[in-house]
Amino acid sequence: MGKYLIKRLFTSCMTLIGVSILVFFMLQMIPGDPVTYILGDFATEEAVAELKAELGLDKSLPVQYFSFVTNAIQGDLGTSFITGYPVWEEITLRFPITFNLAVMSLVIGAVVGILLGILAAVKQNTIFDQLAMLLSLIGISAPSFWIALFLIFIFAYQIPLFPISGYDGFSSLILPAITLGLGSAGNIARMTRSSMLDVIKQDYMRTAQAKGLALHSMIFQHAFQNALIPVITLIGLQFGYLLAGAVVTETVFALPGIGSFAIDAIAKRDLPTIQGLVLFIAVLFILTNLVVDLIYSLIDPRIKY
Amino acid sequence: MLKPTFVPLMLAFGLLVTGCTPSSNTAEEPKQSSNRTLDTLVISATREPDTLDVQKTTFVDDSNSHMYDTLLRRDMEGNIVPGLAESYEVSEDGKIWTFKLRKDVTFHTGEPMTAESIKVAFERYKENSPVANNLGPIEKSEAVDQHTFKVYFSEPFAPFANNLCWAYLGPVDPKVVAEKGDKFGETPSGAGILKFNEHKRGASIIYDINKDYKWGPTYVANQGAPDFNKVEFKFIKDDDTRILEFQKGTIQVMLDVPPNYLKPLEVEKGVTIERVNEQALTFLGFNNKKEIFSDKRVRQAIAMAVDRDPIVNVALEGVAKPVNGPLPPSIAGYSEKIENLAKEKYTRNINGAKKLLEEAGWTDANGDGIVEKDGKPFSVELWLTKEPVNTRIAQILQSQLKEIGVDLKITVQEDATIRANTPKALHDMILWKFAWSDADVLYAMFANGQSIRVHFERDNLHDLLVKARQTTNEQERVALYEQIQEFLVEEEPMVPLFVRERIIAHRDIEGFKFNPYSQSIIFSDIKAKQ
Predict the structure, then answer these.
(1) Cα angle B154-B155-B156, degrees, rounded to a multiple of 5
(2) Chain A contacts in chain B segment 390-429 (CB below 8 A)
(3) With bands split at pLDDT 50, 70 and 90, how would you rate the model's confidence at A91?
(4) Scanning A4, A17, B34, B378, which has its CA 20 to 30 A from the CA of B327?
């Protein structure tokens, strides 16, 4: 296990270096920069040159990149060109909201998705299977902004159970979590159904049935555990995407998370913020994938590192 | 293949949920807001300021400007009137401005405002602001005594009076500046009607009412603080979400109501709508560096092909006013005479436009509907940002220009991309706008070295613009700007289109006023509706 973790650490570092190079140089290629954003219609050549020098953008690209990387290694992701706040401070301010939202969404998505998937698999080709797959299709197909507005209209406006927008604690995340959870649930339900069907057809399941085991024991003690690996992989990926910030949902619910923050930074070409956010999200993905891989070994004793 | 039970289930669900989403076409009965006295005035806005330190940003609006009061102000008719400065005078040569300050003004910390604090503010602004040119060609400033302040310029700078009406040049508390330095924006302090309380980044800004405030504008009934205690600006980008919050009553003032929600809000009980001209002129800009637009007759022909009525009434749903001249009515320096001159000269006339193009050498030799010259078709690209209304406007322009044989291709680009590439003259045409509160904006648009969007620079125009900047006599200045605008109407380096109306909705309050010349809310008369 120790060797495996060291190997993963090494490959993770390589990944992060690759990501940092890619995002840095890609940002240089897209048109627009923070200077023209800040100066607006006063962006004369002279004013642009002056502000570029002030922000350190007049230095060569390798020098800028090297400066960024050496600071990042020391935990300094730079200062936003637009707000003047440290990038790390902005991230730590907003990330807890996104994290809480991701966890809640995933719990909803996993619980609903797995139960629907099991139901569909066990009751294959019945009305329950069709209903389950219809619901999963709606979850996948319906745009998140539409689900969000629907939920807001019914449960925050007509029946004011929840706030319409903004973040003021746990209750503010329920409707956004349901919005995102329904989308995840759709994918998880389909994967669970497919995986369960593969397992249900196995010989040992027929043996279990012949032995007279109760249905719930067959499903949850035998079938489900063996069907879990691809489902866990999918849940891990979903979590990674959710941590990157569900931009549309955050915008509709006016949640100050990292998704909406990232979009803002990109529109304003706030280079340190974009670079810092991308690195941060890359680290999250790497950690999530590592946790998922470690969970495999817990579920399936045949997997050893 | 879907089983038969699938389809009716899907349809039924679809109908159910479609019927439940917010509609922009039906009048809603208002939600009852709680019957309480007004403690916190909640205002929704779409854009959060980048920083609360207005000396470090180019974006200033209601959400970050009211902490700072200004030396001068614009009244409701656009006249410049005293503010924190009781009076001012300009020397004969226009280079020395002397201000007499009010003696009763204090900063939020309780420190008195003095001439020295103005000096600190100006120096800080000059050092930090990306648009320090708002100060003009300042040589130095001087605190003559506690309440007399002088500014010395190397050349006369007439726009200074207008610029002093903006929060950029409002005094900042020198004590807090000294304590906080670069971090002043985290706990800003000025002499404005609002005091900083809390900034929940990404969500809202909360201000306390400055109860010591008693130096408000003379053109309002109450020059002191209003009765309520706090103002909260909530930043909600999504239009539907903002509307629902407003209809629920959790927001009393909704800035920038989307045009498609105007009609339902107009009929909603308890809601008042204010319509105010923006200070921004939207125009169809030519890249005058391109050969294709070098002939004035081509530009004039295109101007003659444009019909503003469908743009205003259809694309903008009537929430705009057509403008023909280089300045809209909401910018000081606007001239009715020039507006009528431009309207008459460029009255839509397809035959006249075709004739002008023909004179310039553009004819439809091959009968394909597009004019050519030297074998090249008149095909140009129009850049615009991705705001949906811009696409509708561009489509209307495309069909109008087609009538005179111009092939207009529409390209939607990111705002940052257009800002980066237009100074490099990579574009053919842009759908853009400029905004400011003074005719000096024409300097930013057309002076030599400044014309980064339309690239139209002429020495005689530059000389006039510089002269207008340096003329402090108001009447002479007006006459100069008329001359400038006449020239621009003749040359038509851009086709002015419209000025949008800003729609503001409010409920449960009375006494709400919005100054169209400073584009700001006047808080002092606001109280809960009885």
Answers:
(1) 130
(2) 414-417, 419-421, 423
(3) very high
(4) B378
In this predicted structure, the answer to whether residue A81 has a pLDDT above a threshold of 80 is yes
Secondary structure of B274-291 in HEC code, one letter for each residue:
EEEEEEEEEEEEECCCCH
A180 touches B at CB < 8 Å? no
Model confidence over B175-193: pLDDT tens digits? 999 999 989 999 999 999 9
- Phi and psi at residue B276, in whole multiples of 5°? -130, 135
Are residues B237 and A249 in contact, defined by beta-carbon separation less than 8 angstroms?
Answer: no
Q: What is the pLDDT of residues A251-294, one digit of tens each?
A: 999 999 998 899 889 888 899 999 999 999 888 888 888 888 88
Q: What is the CA radius of gyration of chain B?
A: 26
Residue B244 and residue A157: Cβ atoms within 8 Å?
yes
Q: Shortest Cα distance from B465 to chain A (angstroms)?
A: 16
pLDDT average, residue stretch A2-6 = 83
Secondary element (H or E) of residue B293: none
Residue of B nearest to A125 (CA): B3
B406, B302 in Cβ contact below 8 A? yes
Whether B131 and chain A come into contact, CB under 8 Å, resolves to yes
Average pLDDT of span A291-305: 77
What is the DSSP code string of B462-510?
HHHHHHHHH---HHHHHHHHHHHHHHHHHH-SEEEEEEEEEEEEEESEE
Q: Which of B420, B425, B407, B405 is nearest to B290 (CA)?
A: B425
At B341, list the tokens.
């001159």
- How close does chain B come to A285, measured CA to CA in Å? 24
Give residues 201 to 240 of A whose Cβ lies within 8 Å of B.
Answer: none
- Whole-number Cα distances in Å, B166 to B60, B62, B348: 9, 11, 38
Residue B204: strand, helix, or coil = strand
pTM: 0.88
Average pLDDT, chain A: 88
The answer to whether B416 contacts A43, with C-beta atoms less than 8 Å apart, is: no
Supply the pLDDT for residue A29: 86
CA atoms within 13 A on the CB side of A200: 19
Residue listed under structure tokens 């209809």: B247
Q: Tokens 């140089």 identify what position?
A: A25
**A-to-B residue pairs, Cβ atoms closer than 8 angstroms:** 143
Buried b (16+ CB within 10 A) or exposed e, A263-293: bbbbebbbbbbbbbbbbbbbebbbebbbebb
Residue with the two structure tokens 């009968």:
B367
Mean pLDDT along residues A237-242:
83
> CA B515, CA B76: separation in Å to the nearest integer?
6
- Does residue B7 sit at the A interface (CB-CB below 8 Å)? no
Dist CA B301 CA B303 (whole Å):
5
- CA dist A43 and B450 (Å) reads 8
In chain A, what are the helix, strand and coil shares in percent, each to the nearest 5?
A: 80, 0, 20
